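Colleagues,

Please find the record for the seven-part complex below.
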Amino acid sequence: MAFRKFLPLFDRVLVERLTAETVTKGGIMLPEKSQGKVLQATVVAVGPGSVNQKGHVLPVSVKVGEKVLLPEYGGTKVVLEEKDYFLFRDGDILGKYVD
Amino acid sequence: MAFRKFLPLFDRVLVERLTAETVTKGGIMLPEKSQGKVLQATVVAVGPGSVNQKGHVLPVSVKVGEKVLLPEYGGTKVVLEEKDYFLFRDGDILGKYVD
Amino acid sequence: MAFRKFLPLFDRVLVERLTAETVTKGGIMLPEKSQGKVLQATVVAVGPGSVNQKGHVLPVSVKVGEKVLLPEYGGTKVVLEEKDYFLFRDGDILGKYVD
Amino acid sequence: MAFRKFLPLFDRVLVERLTAETVTKGGIMLPEKSQGKVLQATVVAVGPGSVNQKGHVLPVSVKVGEKVLLPEYGGTKVVLEEKDYFLFRDGDILGKYVD
Amino acid sequence: MAFRKFLPLFDRVLVERLTAETVTKGGIMLPEKSQGKVLQATVVAVGPGSVNQKGHVLPVSVKVGEKVLLPEYGGTKVVLEEKDYFLFRDGDILGKYVD
Amino acid sequence: MAFRKFLPLFDRVLVERLTAETVTKGGIMLPEKSQGKVLQATVVAVGPGSVNQKGHVLPVSVKVGEKVLLPEYGGTKVVLEEKDYFLFRDGDILGKYVD
Amino acid sequence: MAFRKFLPLFDRVLVERLTAETVTKGGIMLPEKSQGKVLQATVVAVGPGSVNQKGHVLPVSVKVGEKVLLPEYGGTKVVLEEKDYFLFRDGDILGKYVD
């Protein structure tokens, strides 16, 4: 997989957005405009963490595989092997889903 | 409940706004425009706290179940299981109601 | 009293503005526009203080019952039990009146 | 005196501006517009000082009675017992006159 | 090579962008406008690192020869021996490709 | 002299600009517009230095009598005994002339 | 030389830009507009370094005589003995040329 070979730097987190619902439960296809913006994503790679003034690394707060909630705006789209991913700063991720 | 499965990150606090009064004491229904903005909310989930430069966690100042007063602006709406919640930074919550 | 049950967070201070003079010494009622903005207030509740980077609390510099001078702008109006109060950051209060 | 009963908070300094020259040496009255802005003032009350991140107080650099030079802009006008005073941050006062 | 003789200062990283695809797999030449912006680059020189408040050097997080992903905007173009290079702050580089 | 009685506060430096050349070497008077802005000045008084977060004073880097180069913009004009002086922050002075 | 007598303050670096090519290799004079902006310069004087919060001096990273690469914008032009020099903050210099 693409993200295995890509290592974010510092406190950056690489995520893959969940696919939007394109068909209603009743089977009707939704035009792209009606599809809600997908804010849920899966963490696919994490940076080592930010470095403080003393040179110590502060690890990121999420792990590969965790499902997170993204803010509506922000993030940087990166294309790895023709697939869209997004980079977010660890501190910008709103929360994560736990069992 | 939805919020049990969602864990805010850092110093974020997930709250549920109290429902607005939609009927006057005399029984008259209020149009949506006449309903005051509800600034009181109940804390439903809290992040572990912000992380300082040395990597120590500073816990948030409110607890799940506490009733808080929100600022009029700010906060991020998040939809969990088709219900509206709001995320606020711990430092942006104005105060809490105690007995 | 309302403010007994409301606890400001961090370095916030809840104050109640003194009532404006609405009648001149000669007994003439002043229209609202002619009434000066009241900048004097009484402290009714104080937060525990701001938290520094090490997690230590720095207490606020005013106490409940003290009469303070507010800046002309700023502060957040909060309504508690249908009465108007104002929240100010401790550092924004200009000074206090002492005997 | 009014300022004896008013205590500025933190690093604020209460000053009283010197009165502007309203009459020329030749005895001609100056219209208000021709009077220069008075930037010299006398310190009438000082706050205890600013509080650093560790909670230590850093005293202000001027004392009651000292004659100081104010910046042209800034400062907050406060009215105490119907007399105008001005509050400046200690760090905004340009300098003081010494013998 | 030019970059051997140029030493970036502080936390700056000198990179050389990979050449854009100018011909499709089918052999058709692409006009410049259709060529995607190349965000992949090779590190050709790195600064010693940023200097913190105590004078200690915090080394950069990439090494000469590593393949990195650049942000879409930012960076400073520098021409060394008539060849284009780009300087980026270490913290602005999004990530690196590892085997 | 006026500046002997004025003490700048913190890291402020009081300077007197050198007089502009108003006559060419050939004896022709220059209109004010043709006179270059004088950026050279003599230090006439210095503050004790800025105060850091721990309350320690960091002395200024110039001494009374030294000839300095001022930035083109900035500084605060102060009039002492009907003579123009300028206050600059120590850190804004570009350099000094040494023998 | 002029720069021997001028000492930059703090982390400022005085540089002299290399002269632009005004004649092509073929001997044709270039109009000023066609001459590229010269970003290479020689360090002619350096300040003692910036002072951190504890009063310690952090020396600059370049030495007198070194050839450096300047950013396209920024810097302060200073005229010393009718010759143009430029002052740059040490941290704004992009890199240096080493053998």
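Chains E and B do not touch (no CB pair under 8 Å).

Comments are welcome before we finalize the supplementary table.
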